[in-house]
Amino acid sequence: MIAIGLMGPMASDSIIFSTGETQAHLAYLIQGRMALEEGQFPLRIAPYENKGLRYASFQFYSQIPYTLGGLIYKFITPNNPYTAYKIMLWGALLIGGLFIYRLSRLLTCDRIAAILAGLSYMSAPYFLNTVHARGAFPEAIAQGILPIVLYYIIRTYNSPKINYILLSSIAWFALATTHIITFIYGSLFFGILGLLLILKQPKTRALRKQLTRVTISYISGWLLGMYFLMPVVLESKYVSMRFYVDQISPYVTNWMTPLANLLSPTALPPTPTGEGITYGLTPAVGWVFLAAWGVVLYYYSSSKTLPSNLSANHTYIFGLLYIFPLALFITWSPINFWHVLPRSLWVTQFTFRFLTHVMWSGALLIGYASILLFKRHLNSRHLLIGILLIVIANRSWLPIPKGHITVNEVLGDPKFGHSGAVDYLNRSSVDTLYGNAQLPLLANTWIPGHGSWDHINNRLLPVVLENEPSWRILPVWKETDNPVLILEGKVVQDTVPNPTTLLVTVLELHSDKNKEIIGEISLNQPRISARIPFTSEKLKNLEFHEGLFRLQFIVKRNIEQGQRPKIELDNFVFEGMSFENTIIPLDVTKDQCMLRGIKTLCKVSVEEQARVVQLPAMYYPRMQRVKIDGRLAEYFPVNYYDYNLVGLRLKPGNHNIQVIFVGLDWANSISFVAWLSVIAIAITLNTNNIKKMSNKTIKK
Question: What pTM was computed for the model?
Answer without folding.
Answer: 0.94
